Amino acid sequence: MRDAYSYPPSMRRLVNELSKLPSIGMKSAVRLAYALIEPSNSSAEQLAEAISAARTALRYCEECFSLTESTVCSVCTDESRNRAVVCVVEKPSDIISIERSGDFNGLYHVLHGLWSPMRGVEPSSVRINELSTRLEKLGCVEEVILATSTTVEGDATAMYIANMLKGADIRVTRLAQGLPMGGELEYADELTLSHALAGRQSID
Amino acid sequence: MRDAYSYPPSMRRLVNELSKLPSIGMKSAVRLAYALIEPSNSSAEQLAEAISAARTALRYCEECFSLTESTVCSVCTDESRNRAVVCVVEKPSDIISIERSGDFNGLYHVLHGLWSPMRGVEPSSVRINELSTRLEKLGCVEEVILATSTTVEGDATAMYIANMLKGADIRVTRLAQGLPMGGELEYADELTLSHALAGRQSID
Fold this sequence. Notes:
2 copies of one chain form a homodimer.
Chain A: H1 9-18, H2 26-37, H3 43-57, E1 59-60, E2 67-68, E3 85-89, H4 92-101, E4 107-110, H5 129-138, E5 143-146, H6 152-164, E6 171-174, H7 190-198
Parallel strand pairs in A: 3-4, 3-5, 5-6
Antiparallel strand pairs in A: 1-2
Helix pairs in contact in A: 1-2
């Protein structure tokens, strides 16, 4: 039996590296590899450079652990932001979502994960201890908004932090749960409806 | 109105470069970017290197235009392959598919595209002229198998090549069209069934 022709080593290596990315299977990896080796595709070199540059330049903010190219991020250094409110999120991209709403002017704290006994993630392995250290350091915090996801893990993490902050003179809040905008009652699940009912508000 | 926090420049650049890849939208680009900048992800550097290495090492075979790291690919230099049969395919990955079947031992010719009047792709901009030059050079070719897709463009390209080779003493064939293996009649479209009927074969 003769050897079948297969891709040259550098192509196999590229496909292999691409297939390690999240949600990229073998077929997508091959398609991406072809796009990347296309001689007319000048942006492939740009991508290689962008990966290296980002890995060199980016770090986590020493204060809030969001992404930054400095020691401290632009939110933490922004004197116009309200230092009395800290919004706790799971990951840096959540900050972008909240900033897009335009309705928050406080500081952030990125946990980089959620407490998940099922997956063996302890509270100590996400940045919860760093949160209490930071609140002490800031001194003036009046409110901590827990903006973790409304999943089992997000809720558990929020409860854990709320317990931790009991006794401190800080108001602890959680993002409202209810129907999403444009959400039809017909398609809302029972749990969402329960929360929407429990959190119902008077119309003045 | 204050500036909302957004990603640092190197992150924005990385997301932007990733979103230029085929079938990678903005959300996927952000998810991939996070995976690539993750400090514990050592394979991100590997990917950046693999892209550069592949772009430097890979070229198209001077004979058949498949991918190779040499001047001529391993199929074209393989003395054990049958030089009397040339299989014409659209792209290098099609070679991998045919090789996987294990039933072909001839040479290949990669067109790098298909004739598509609708998208303004002329036969001269895919490697059809190179095919006739090559057949002349090889001299001994008895059969050309047209293995382009069974799409409008694949069929048109096959017809174009068949016409071009008229008069030359070469048998021109096309891959059989019919029901795929495991294909249920119920789900076969009319055109596939028409081809399957027209190409029906006696059972000896």
